[in-house]
Amino acid sequence: SAGADLWVLGMFRPPEEVAVYGAASRLAGIVGTPLAVSNAVLAPVIAELHSRDERARLEKVMRAAATLGVLPSVLLAALFFALGDRILSIAFTEAYAEGWLVVVILAIGQLVNVLFGPCTIALAMTGHQRDVVVTSALAGLVTVLAFYLVAPSYGAPGVALIAAIALILYNVVLAGLVRWRLQMITWGTCSPNSLRRFADELTGALGRPR
Question: What does the DSSP 8-state code read for residue 116?
């Protein structure tokens, strides 16, 4: 459903509102950057550890990435919550400041996305690509239908809420599939001791010769 929110919103709402939503969406998307970076780095690591059947270490590495990635995401989400309207005004113009609520809603969705960790690539790199494809297709279909229902009456905030809820539920389903298929969890932790242990584990895995 990538981009579907803008398309559907554009069918029912004024161009100015669509523009504000687009700008807010771009800004909120920054919160999810740590996960995108860790996914790119971890993909070959997950495949290698899985092929060696190092299950315990694989789980630690994935949880390490989620734990370390959520820290900058929390800071960014907090920044957007406190100063989102000002940031929109500076990055775009004063007219975009009204997109603050959209930024906050979408940032929460992205934050949860990061917190759940590399669910998608955990399945994709361990031979369960079909689970990812089916879940993504169903989630996309339901989300687009929900956009059509809320966009006429609730506009940008309603579409943003659907997008955030859809992203959260998508992660819940994928995390459940990882738990079922691999008997592992991928989400992070806020424990300082676990954070240090996971950081050491992740550093070791990435620095290990392959």
Answer: T
Which of these, 12, 35, 58, lies nearest to 208 by C-alpha position? 58
What one-letter code names the amino acid at 68?
L
Of 11, 23, 30, which is closest to residue 160 (Cα–Cα)?
A: 23
Q: Is 17 a residue whose pLDDT tops 50? A: yes
- Whether residue 136 is predicted with pLDDT greater than 60 in this model: the reply is yes
What percentage of the chain exceeds 90 in pLDDT?
A: 80
Q: Is the pLDDT of residue 150 over 60?
A: yes
Does residue 57 surpass a pLDDT of 70? yes
Helix (H, G, I), strand (E, B) or coil at 31: helix
Closest CA to 34 of 99, 90, 118, 96: 118
Tokens (6 digits) for 55:
């299950």
One-letter amino acid of 66:
A
Distance in angstroms (rounded) separating the CA atoms of residues 176 and 119: 9
Residue (of 138, 121, 122, 133) closest to 181 by Cα position: 122
Helix, strand, or coil here: 184? coil
